[in-house]
Amino acid sequence: MKSIADFSPLCQAFFAKRLVTQRKASPHTVSAYAQTFRLFLAYAQKRLHTPPSMLSLAQLDTNLVTDFLDSLESSRGNDARSRNARLASLRSFYHFAALEAPQHASLIQRVLAIPYKRLARRLVSYLTRPEVEAVLASVDKSTWIGRRNHALMLLAMQTGLRLSELTGLRQGDVMLGHGAHVRCEGKGRKERCTPLARSTVVVLKVWIHEQGDDESGILFPSSSGGRMSADAVQHALAKHVAAACKTCPSLLKKHVTPHVLRHTAAMELFQAGVDRSLIAIWLGHESLDTTQIYLDANLQLKEAILNRVNPVQSKPGRYRPDDKLLAYLKAL
Question: Which of 127, 214, 260, 280 could disulfide-link to 291, CB 3.0 to 4.6 Å?
Protein backbone atom coordinates (compact mmCIF):
# COMPACT_ATOMS: atom_id res chain seq x y z
CA MET A 1 0.00 0.00 0.00
CA LYS A 2 1.38 3.37 -1.00
CA SER A 3 2.04 5.73 1.90
CA ILE A 4 0.21 9.03 2.09
CA ALA A 5 2.36 12.18 1.74
CA ASP A 6 1.06 13.70 4.97
CA PHE A 7 4.30 15.08 6.41
CA SER A 8 4.42 18.32 4.39
CA PRO A 9 1.05 19.71 5.57
CA LEU A 10 1.85 18.65 9.14
CA CYS A 11 5.22 20.40 9.04
CA GLN A 12 3.75 23.61 7.64
CA ALA A 13 0.95 23.56 10.20
CA PHE A 14 3.50 23.05 12.97
CA PHE A 15 5.37 26.22 12.02
CA ALA A 16 2.31 28.35 11.20
CA LYS A 17 -0.08 27.13 13.89
CA ARG A 18 2.05 25.88 16.79
CA LEU A 19 5.16 28.06 16.68
CA VAL A 20 3.95 31.35 15.23
CA THR A 21 0.27 31.52 16.26
CA GLN A 22 0.02 29.53 19.49
CA ARG A 23 3.46 29.86 21.04
CA LYS A 24 4.27 33.22 19.40
CA ALA A 25 7.87 32.08 19.05
CA SER A 26 10.49 34.70 18.26
CA PRO A 27 11.98 34.90 14.73
CA HIS A 28 15.22 33.55 16.20
CA THR A 29 13.44 30.45 17.53
CA VAL A 30 11.55 29.86 14.29
CA SER A 31 14.79 30.17 12.33
CA ALA A 32 16.54 27.65 14.60
CA TYR A 33 13.68 25.14 14.24
CA ALA A 34 13.61 25.65 10.46
CA GLN A 35 17.35 24.92 10.23
CA THR A 36 16.82 21.64 12.09
CA PHE A 37 14.09 20.58 9.65
CA ARG A 38 16.16 21.56 6.62
CA LEU A 39 18.96 19.30 7.84
CA PHE A 40 16.55 16.50 8.76
CA LEU A 41 14.70 16.58 5.42
CA ALA A 42 17.93 16.69 3.43
CA TYR A 43 19.06 13.58 5.30
CA ALA A 44 15.67 11.87 4.80
CA GLN A 45 15.68 12.66 1.07
CA LYS A 46 19.15 11.18 0.65
CA ARG A 47 18.26 8.12 2.70
CA LEU A 48 14.76 7.42 1.32
CA HIS A 49 15.20 8.84 -2.21
CA THR A 50 11.95 10.76 -1.76
CA PRO A 51 11.41 14.54 -2.15
CA PRO A 52 10.52 16.21 1.18
CA SER A 53 7.09 17.26 -0.10
CA MET A 54 6.23 13.60 -0.81
CA LEU A 55 7.32 12.18 2.55
CA SER A 56 4.95 10.36 4.85
CA LEU A 57 5.18 10.65 8.63
CA ALA A 58 5.22 6.84 8.67
CA GLN A 59 8.62 6.96 6.94
CA LEU A 60 10.13 9.26 9.56
CA ASP A 61 10.32 6.66 12.27
CA THR A 62 12.62 6.13 15.25
CA ASN A 63 15.40 4.53 13.22
CA LEU A 64 15.55 7.42 10.76
CA VAL A 65 15.49 10.08 13.49
CA THR A 66 18.18 8.27 15.51
CA ASP A 67 20.39 7.80 12.45
CA PHE A 68 19.97 11.48 11.59
CA LEU A 69 21.07 12.52 15.10
CA ASP A 70 24.08 10.21 14.90
CA SER A 71 25.03 11.69 11.52
CA LEU A 72 25.11 15.16 13.04
CA GLU A 73 27.98 14.03 15.22
CA SER A 74 29.78 11.78 12.75
CA SER A 75 29.40 13.83 9.54
CA ARG A 76 28.94 17.42 10.72
CA GLY A 77 31.09 17.24 13.84
CA ASN A 78 28.31 18.51 16.13
CA ASP A 79 28.75 17.97 19.86
CA ALA A 80 26.17 16.43 22.19
CA ARG A 81 24.72 19.84 23.06
CA SER A 82 23.95 20.63 19.41
CA ARG A 83 22.54 17.13 18.93
CA ASN A 84 20.21 17.60 21.88
CA ALA A 85 19.05 20.97 20.54
CA ARG A 86 18.12 19.35 17.20
CA LEU A 87 16.30 16.56 19.03
CA ALA A 88 14.36 19.11 21.08
CA SER A 89 13.11 20.74 17.87
CA LEU A 90 12.00 17.40 16.44
CA ARG A 91 10.33 16.37 19.71
CA SER A 92 8.30 19.58 19.66
CA PHE A 93 7.04 18.66 16.18
CA TYR A 94 6.18 15.09 17.15
CA HIS A 95 4.24 16.34 20.21
CA PHE A 96 2.23 18.48 17.78
CA ALA A 97 1.79 15.55 15.39
CA ALA A 98 0.41 13.42 18.22
CA LEU A 99 -2.65 15.70 18.31
CA GLU A 100 -2.98 16.22 14.57
CA ALA A 101 -2.25 12.66 13.39
CA PRO A 102 -3.37 10.23 16.13
CA GLN A 103 -3.23 7.35 13.64
CA HIS A 104 0.57 7.52 14.01
CA ALA A 105 0.44 7.46 17.83
CA SER A 106 2.60 4.35 18.18
CA LEU A 107 5.36 5.70 15.91
CA ILE A 108 5.25 9.12 17.61
CA GLN A 109 5.59 7.64 21.10
CA ARG A 110 8.68 5.70 20.04
CA VAL A 111 10.28 8.85 18.60
CA LEU A 112 9.46 10.83 21.76
CA ALA A 113 11.16 8.10 23.78
CA ILE A 114 14.54 8.84 22.14
CA PRO A 115 16.68 10.08 25.06
CA TYR A 116 18.79 13.19 25.15
CA LYS A 117 22.50 12.52 25.18
CA ARG A 118 24.33 13.12 28.43
CA LEU A 119 27.10 15.68 28.20
CA ALA A 120 29.91 17.00 30.30
CA ARG A 121 29.13 20.17 32.21
CA ARG A 122 32.11 22.43 31.67
CA LEU A 123 32.95 25.54 33.64
CA VAL A 124 31.75 28.73 31.99
CA SER A 125 34.33 30.91 30.29
CA TYR A 126 34.47 34.61 31.13
CA LEU A 127 36.84 37.56 30.85
CA THR A 128 38.73 39.02 33.78
CA ARG A 129 38.79 42.78 34.30
CA PRO A 130 42.26 43.20 32.65
CA GLU A 131 41.01 41.19 29.66
CA VAL A 132 37.86 43.30 29.40
CA GLU A 133 39.91 46.48 29.42
CA ALA A 134 42.32 45.08 26.83
CA VAL A 135 39.52 44.14 24.43
CA LEU A 136 37.83 47.54 24.72
CA ALA A 137 41.16 49.36 24.35
CA SER A 138 41.95 47.44 21.14
CA VAL A 139 39.08 49.10 19.26
CA ASP A 140 39.95 51.88 16.82
CA LYS A 141 37.36 54.50 17.80
CA SER A 142 38.38 56.83 14.98
CA THR A 143 36.09 54.88 12.62
CA TRP A 144 32.29 54.56 12.62
CA ILE A 145 32.46 50.76 12.83
CA GLY A 146 34.98 50.97 15.67
CA ARG A 147 32.77 53.29 17.71
CA ARG A 148 29.77 51.02 17.10
CA ASN A 149 31.67 47.90 18.13
CA HIS A 150 33.05 49.61 21.23
CA ALA A 151 29.60 50.72 22.36
CA LEU A 152 28.10 47.29 21.64
CA MET A 153 30.77 45.34 23.52
CA LEU A 154 30.71 47.73 26.48
CA LEU A 155 26.94 47.37 26.75
CA ALA A 156 27.20 43.57 26.47
CA MET A 157 29.88 43.32 29.16
CA GLN A 158 27.97 45.56 31.56
CA THR A 159 24.40 44.33 31.09
CA GLY A 160 24.86 40.69 30.12
CA LEU A 161 22.25 40.90 27.35
CA ARG A 162 21.98 37.93 25.01
CA LEU A 163 23.22 38.36 21.44
CA SER A 164 19.71 38.39 19.98
CA GLU A 165 18.68 40.99 22.57
CA LEU A 166 21.63 43.23 21.72
CA THR A 167 21.15 43.16 17.96
CA GLY A 168 17.41 43.73 18.33
CA LEU A 169 17.74 46.90 20.44
CA ARG A 170 16.37 50.16 19.09
CA GLN A 171 17.24 53.64 20.29
CA GLY A 172 13.87 53.91 21.99
CA ASP A 173 14.79 50.93 24.20
CA VAL A 174 17.56 52.93 25.90
CA MET A 175 16.74 55.47 28.61
CA LEU A 176 19.74 57.68 29.38
CA GLY A 177 18.24 60.17 31.81
CA HIS A 178 17.62 59.70 35.54
CA GLY A 179 17.52 55.97 36.32
CA ALA A 180 19.26 55.08 33.06
CA HIS A 181 18.41 51.60 31.81
CA VAL A 182 17.93 49.45 28.74
CA ARG A 183 14.69 47.61 28.05
CA CYS A 184 14.61 44.39 26.05
CA GLU A 185 12.43 41.42 25.26
CA GLY A 186 14.24 38.20 26.12
CA LYS A 187 13.55 34.48 25.97
CA GLY A 188 9.91 33.53 26.20
CA ARG A 189 8.99 37.10 25.22
CA LYS A 190 9.73 38.24 28.78
CA GLU A 191 10.42 41.96 28.97
CA ARG A 192 13.01 43.16 31.46
CA CYS A 193 14.91 46.35 32.29
CA THR A 194 18.63 46.44 33.10
CA PRO A 195 20.27 49.50 34.72
CA LEU A 196 23.21 51.17 33.02
CA ALA A 197 26.49 52.25 34.60
CA ARG A 198 27.56 55.87 34.21
CA SER A 199 30.45 55.00 31.90
CA THR A 200 28.09 53.07 29.63
CA VAL A 201 25.59 55.95 29.62
CA VAL A 202 28.30 58.39 28.49
CA VAL A 203 29.36 56.16 25.59
CA LEU A 204 25.78 55.50 24.48
CA LYS A 205 24.87 59.20 24.58
CA VAL A 206 27.72 60.02 22.22
CA TRP A 207 26.88 57.08 19.95
CA ILE A 208 23.16 57.89 19.70
CA HIS A 209 23.90 61.58 19.10
CA GLU A 210 26.19 60.56 16.22
CA GLN A 211 23.45 58.39 14.69
CA GLY A 212 20.77 61.04 15.07
CA ASP A 213 17.96 60.59 17.58
CA ASP A 214 15.45 58.15 16.10
CA GLU A 215 13.58 55.98 18.59
CA SER A 216 12.67 53.44 15.91
CA GLY A 217 16.23 53.19 14.59
CA ILE A 218 18.42 50.14 15.30
CA LEU A 219 20.83 50.97 18.13
CA PHE A 220 23.75 49.08 16.58
CA PRO A 221 23.04 48.95 12.83
CA SER A 222 25.03 47.17 10.17
CA SER A 223 26.87 49.12 7.50
CA SER A 224 23.72 48.99 5.38
CA GLY A 225 21.55 50.28 8.21
CA GLY A 226 19.80 47.03 9.08
CA ARG A 227 20.06 44.68 12.03
CA MET A 228 23.49 43.09 12.55
CA SER A 229 23.65 39.35 12.05
CA ALA A 230 25.03 37.00 14.70
CA ASP A 231 27.97 36.20 12.40
CA ALA A 232 28.77 39.90 12.01
CA VAL A 233 28.93 40.42 15.78
CA GLN A 234 31.07 37.29 16.22
CA HIS A 235 33.44 38.43 13.46
CA ALA A 236 33.82 41.90 14.99
CA LEU A 237 34.42 40.47 18.46
CA ALA A 238 37.00 37.97 17.19
CA LYS A 239 38.87 40.78 15.41
CA HIS A 240 39.13 42.89 18.55
CA VAL A 241 40.07 39.94 20.76
CA ALA A 242 42.87 39.03 18.33
CA ALA A 243 44.17 42.61 18.53
CA ALA A 244 43.93 42.58 22.33
CA CYS A 245 46.04 39.41 22.56
CA LYS A 246 49.12 41.52 21.84
CA THR A 247 48.79 43.31 25.18
CA CYS A 248 46.91 40.59 27.10
CA PRO A 249 48.37 37.13 26.31
CA SER A 250 45.85 35.33 28.56
CA LEU A 251 43.23 35.90 25.85
CA LEU A 252 45.10 33.47 23.59
CA LYS A 253 43.83 30.59 25.75
CA LYS A 254 40.18 31.63 25.52
CA HIS A 255 37.55 31.21 22.82
CA VAL A 256 35.63 34.45 23.21
CA THR A 257 32.07 34.49 21.86
CA PRO A 258 29.28 37.04 22.40
CA HIS A 259 27.86 34.71 25.08
CA VAL A 260 31.18 34.89 26.95
CA LEU A 261 30.50 38.61 27.35
CA ARG A 262 27.21 37.68 29.05
CA HIS A 263 29.10 35.34 31.38
CA THR A 264 31.56 38.16 32.06
CA ALA A 265 28.79 40.50 33.24
CA ALA A 266 27.41 37.77 35.51
CA MET A 267 30.80 37.03 37.08
CA GLU A 268 31.41 40.73 37.69
CA LEU A 269 28.17 40.83 39.67
CA PHE A 270 28.93 37.60 41.50
CA GLN A 271 32.42 38.67 42.51
CA ALA A 272 30.98 41.99 43.74
CA GLY A 273 28.90 40.01 46.25
CA VAL A 274 25.52 40.25 44.51
CA ASP A 275 23.11 37.50 45.61
CA ARG A 276 22.55 34.65 43.17
CA SER A 277 18.79 35.26 43.00
CA LEU A 278 19.37 38.88 41.99
CA ILE A 279 21.81 37.82 39.28
CA ALA A 280 19.13 35.45 37.93
CA ILE A 281 16.71 38.38 37.71
CA TRP A 282 19.39 40.56 36.08
CA LEU A 283 20.12 37.96 33.38
CA GLY A 284 16.50 36.91 32.86
CA HIS A 285 16.99 33.32 34.06
CA GLU A 286 13.83 31.37 34.82
CA SER A 287 15.59 29.11 37.33
CA LEU A 288 18.27 29.66 39.94
CA ASP A 289 19.85 26.40 38.76
CA THR A 290 20.97 28.20 35.59
CA THR A 291 22.81 30.80 37.68
CA GLN A 292 24.57 28.02 39.61
CA ILE A 293 27.20 27.76 36.85
CA TYR A 294 28.74 31.06 37.97
CA LEU A 295 29.10 29.76 41.52
CA ASP A 296 30.88 26.67 40.17
CA ALA A 297 33.30 28.77 38.10
CA ASN A 298 34.15 31.32 40.79
CA LEU A 299 37.68 30.33 41.82
CA GLN A 300 38.11 33.42 44.02
CA LEU A 301 35.20 32.34 46.19
CA LYS A 302 36.68 28.85 46.57
CA GLU A 303 40.07 30.31 47.49
CA ALA A 304 38.40 32.47 50.14
CA ILE A 305 36.74 29.34 51.56
CA LEU A 306 40.10 27.56 51.64
CA ASN A 307 41.65 30.46 53.59
CA ARG A 308 39.00 30.06 56.31
CA VAL A 309 39.70 26.41 57.04
CA ASN A 310 42.57 24.87 58.96
CA PRO A 311 44.35 22.62 56.45
CA VAL A 312 45.46 19.13 57.44
CA GLN A 313 49.09 19.17 58.51
CA SER A 314 51.01 16.51 56.65
CA LYS A 315 54.71 16.16 55.95
CA PRO A 316 55.90 15.11 52.50
CA GLY A 317 57.17 11.56 52.27
CA ARG A 318 60.33 10.38 50.62
CA TYR A 319 60.19 7.75 47.90
CA ARG A 320 61.77 4.47 48.90
CA PRO A 321 61.83 1.67 46.35
CA ASP A 322 60.46 -1.76 47.25
CA ASP A 323 62.71 -4.67 47.99
CA LYS A 324 63.75 -6.25 44.67
CA LEU A 325 62.05 -9.56 45.49
CA LEU A 326 58.79 -7.81 46.50
CA ALA A 327 58.91 -5.67 43.39
CA TYR A 328 59.30 -8.84 41.29
CA LEU A 329 56.32 -10.48 43.00
CA LYS A 330 54.14 -7.37 42.57
CA ALA A 331 54.86 -7.34 38.87
CA LEU A 332 53.54 -10.90 38.42
Answer: 280
235 an active-site residue?
Answer: no
Whole-angstrom Cα distance, residue 62 to residue 44?
12
**259 flagged as catalytic:** yes
Residue 32 · residue 89 · CB < 8 Å: yes
User: Which amino acid belongs to residue 32?
Assistant: A
What pLDDT digit, counting tens, does each position of 242-283 carry?
Answer: 999 999 999 998 999 999 999 898 888 888 888 888 888 888
Our answer to whether residue 209 is catalytic in this structure is no
Write b or e for each residue in 106-131: b if 16 or more Cβ atoms lie within 10 A of its Cβ, otherwise e.
Answer: ebbeebeeeeeeeeeeeebbbbbeeb
Nearest to 8 by CA among 146, 117, 101, 120: 101
pTM above 0.90, yes or no: no
- Sheet with 191-195: strands ordered across: 174-175, 181-185, 191-195
Where does 164-278 show beta strands of DSSP type E?
Answer: 174-175, 181-185, 191-195
